[in-house]
Amino acid sequence: MTLTVRDLSIRYGFFALLIGLALFFYAAEPAFMSVRSFVFVFQSVAITAILALGVTGTLVVGGFDLSIGSVAASSMMAASYAMVIWGWGTVETVMLCVAFGLFVGFINGLIIVYGRVPDLLATLGTMFLLLGLQLVPTAGRSIAKGMILPDGSTATGSFDPSFLMLGRSRLFDIVPVSVVVMLALAVAIFVFLEFTRWGRVMYAIGSNEQASRLAGAPVNRYKIAAYMISGGFAAIGGILLAARVGRGDVSSGNNLLLDGVAAALIGFAVLGAAKPNAFGTLVGALFVGMLLQGLTMMNAPYYTQDAVKGAVLVLALLFTFAMTRRAGS
Amino acid sequence: MKLMNFTRRRFAGLALGAAALLSGTSLSMAQNMPAPFDNAGDVEIALVRYLSTGDFFQAYLTGVQEQAKALGVELRVLDSRQDAALQADMVDQAIALGVDGIIVQHGLTESMTAAVQRAVDAGIKVVAFDVDVENEAVPQIEQSDRDLARLALEQAIADNGEEFEAAYVYVPGIAPLDRRDETWREFKEKYPGIEEAAQFGTLDNPIANSVANQASAVLRANPGVTVVFAPYDEFAKGVKIAVDEAGLSSDIKIYSADISTADIQAMREEPSAWVATAATNPELIGEVSVRALAMLLAGEDPGHNVVVPPTLVTRDMLMEKDINNMDELSQKLPQFATTDVAKPDWMPATGE
Questions:
Q1: Do B237 and B257 fall within a single domain?
Q2: Full domain range(s) for residue B289
Q3: Of A209, A214, B80, B217, which has the fewest CB atoms closer than 10 Å, so is most exposed?
Q4: Which residue in chain A has the smallest CA separation from B10?
Q5: Which of B58, B240, B274, B322 has the highest number of chain A CBs within 10 A, making it the mutation to test binding with A?
């Protein structure tokens, strides 16, 4: 089989762009090409990528999850609350947050599958719900060691050093733990989606739900599971965020949502997959991270960054939809 | 002024609930106060808010509540949660409720000017915090952003001399940051030895995390930077994360503005590059807002510009006096906790 220029550009165009950009930044700013620099690109996208990998799971079954940003933000608040106010240890805190993410995903799934609420609307609802609820325990305050509680007393707990390690320490003095977590989750979801029967069923549901149901797949359970995956991943993102920042910041997590979704959508274009896929999502996130890092090093003003992100997304979607369809027809 | 998320609305039910609790009033000091405060229980004031989410605004509200309680007046809190049109409607609502005084907290000049004029026409006394309502009859409560920036930069020069390579964190278009930026530019002119190697900044949420990512890239592209001027505490927190991750905590010094308990903890870390911040106590601004309004109601003149002075807080101070949170900061740095601004003799102090 010979590949035409179009096939080649669809499959590898994105990688060519990636390498071209890297060379451009290297020429403009030699500090860009160093091991630390590359590690840093991974670190800067780790949290976004984890959210993006989770949302890929819902995209695969033809759904969408708007609540990931607020799940991450709430998970960050929950982790901080558990440690600073209840004085919990690392293990319990991490388990609490993951359970929280899974629970939110489960509720999302129930609302969508049994309540028959369209996915965008259901997750929009939980998004707002969480944005408000995360502020209730502290009456709108950020959480930090030694904070004054609403009842006037002072919080006695503090962040466990081993918890902070999750966000701050490096393996072999070079690879941050958050990057390791990201890669591990990426491999897990990649293997799950591409090589297991469950993954294939999920893709089948995404392409034709009715047919999958008639073929005997338990569609409802799979869809609920997909939302639990994205909730759980988002919660893990929130844990890493809390560990890096070292406090529970009041924040909406909307930028996390937007960046995560953008990475997953850019991923459609990688290797000409034209469908949600874990590998593409990871590459998409790294691509955006590299661009932002290069632009920042070159002192580009902050507003160029959103513009560039938008341009990349549009370009990637054109790759996916226009070129692949023409190639197929 | 503390920045917050500009795109999000949040519930403020708790704030309203807290305000409702405070409406039971104390009359203990009533004897010594001028009219109408000799009968303070009958005086009602309204706080009309534009911004409410975040530590700064929470603390501001506490200050307003404490001073209102000390005076024994009724306080109503109306929170528009970043809806400019709603905020204007709320002023009309307050007029309809027949309140005696209104505090306008933030908002947009365009939407508030007319609404405030209607209130003044209705004989209601108004003060405004951090929003210019273009009205001679309305005292402007301000924290001085220029003084904040000046205090932090003077400390930077005291610590580092007049020649250093600096990185600067700034996002244009945000009023308090623009005012702080003016001071930064003045300093660069005054001290030509200050070289601005890089400028960056973002308000992407969570801000500290996004700024950390940028700062990391900037510090690697500009290894000669020894001073970072980050005149907003979320920026400073982000830069500190990047500095820690790069292992440069003892080579770089961060100067910022604003403070919170979380910031105090970050500055106290061992080692910490965040060496100084200039801040105005938001609780104090809340108290001064109520006091200025009370002076107006009593027929006194607080002046057109009521400026609450900032305080410089350095890492050394925090360590020496063992300050761990905002309460201890107020106890151990009295200039942070109290001010004589808008404080006639009859004015009751808070916390009694």
A1: yes
A2: 13-143+281-310
A3: A214
A4: A132
A5: B58
Read off the pLDDT of residues A125-178 as tens digits, 9 standing for 90 and up.
999 999 889 888 877 777 877 777 777 778 888 888 888 888 878 887 788 899
Identify the DSSP state of A175: E
CB contact under 8 A, A305 and B12: no
Residue B306: which CATH number? 3.40.50.2300
Whether A144 sits inside 8 A of B261 (CB atoms) is yes
Please check the confidence at residue B335 and state whether its pLDDT lies above 90: no
Return d(Cα B252, Cα B239) in angstroms, integer: 10
Cα of A36 to nearest chain B Cα, Å: 9
Indicate if B63 and B150 belong to the same structural domain: no
What is the model's pLDDT at position B80? 86
pLDDT of residue B45: 95
Which of A33, A74, A147, A304 to substitute to test the interface with B, most B CBs within 10 Å?
Answer: A147
Say if B329 falls within a structural domain. Answer: no
Evaluate whether residue B210 is within a structural domain: yes
Query: Which are the contacts of A108, defined by CB distance < 8 A and separation ≥ 6?
Result: A65, A67, A122, A123, A126, A227, A231
For chain A, say whether B242 makes contact (Cβ under 8 Å). Answer: no
CA torsion sign, B156 to B159 to B163 to B164?
Answer: negative
Q: Determine phi and psi for B311, rounding to 5 degrees.
A: -125, 140
How many domains are there within chain B? 2
List of chain B residues whose C-beta atoms are within 8 Å of the C-beta of residue A292:
213-214, 217
Looking at the fold, whether B181 and B248 belong to one and the same domain comes out as yes
Same-domain pairing of B30 and B50: yes
Q: What angle do CA B13, B16, B17 make, to 5 degrees?
A: 85
Q: For the whole model, what pTM was predicted?
A: 0.75
Give the residue among A217, A202, A258 at the shortest CA–CA distance from A72.
A258
Cβ within 8 Å, pair A47-B202: no
pLDDT of residue A2: 61
% chain A with pLDDT above 90: 46
pLDDT (tens digit per residue) in A175-207: 889 999 999 999 999 999 999 999 999 999 999
Whole-angstrom distance, CA of residue B162 vs CA of residue B165: 10
pLDDT, one tens digit per residue, over A116-136 is: 999 999 999 999 999 889 888
Helical (H) or strand (E) element with A263: helix A254-267
* Residues B137, B117 contacting (CB under 8 angstroms): no
Tens digit of each residue's pLDDT (9 = 90 or more) over A1-45: 566 777 777 778 788 888 888 888 888 888 788 887 888 888 889
User: Out of A44, A249, A296, whose CB is closest to B218?
Assistant: A296
CATH code for the domain defined by A41-328: 1.10.3470
Kindly state whether residues B32 and B134 are assigned to the same domain.
yes
Considering only alpha carbons, which residue of chain A is nearest residue B245?
A168
Q: What is the pLDDT of residues B137-146, one digit of tens each?
A: 999 998 888 9
- Residue A11: count of CB within 10 angstroms of its CB: 14
Q: Are residues B111 and B121 in the same domain?
A: yes
Q: Under DSSP, is residue B200 helix (H, G, I), strand (E, B) or coil?
A: strand
Distance CA A186, CA A263 (A): 13
Are residues B300 and B263 part of one domain?
A: no
pLDDT reported for residue B23? 43
The answer to whether B321 contacts chain A (CB < 8 Å) is no
For residues B125 and B293, is the Cβ–Cβ distance under 8 A?
yes
State whether B264 and B289 are in the same domain: no
Are A60 and A103 in contact by the 8 Å Cβ rule? The answer is no
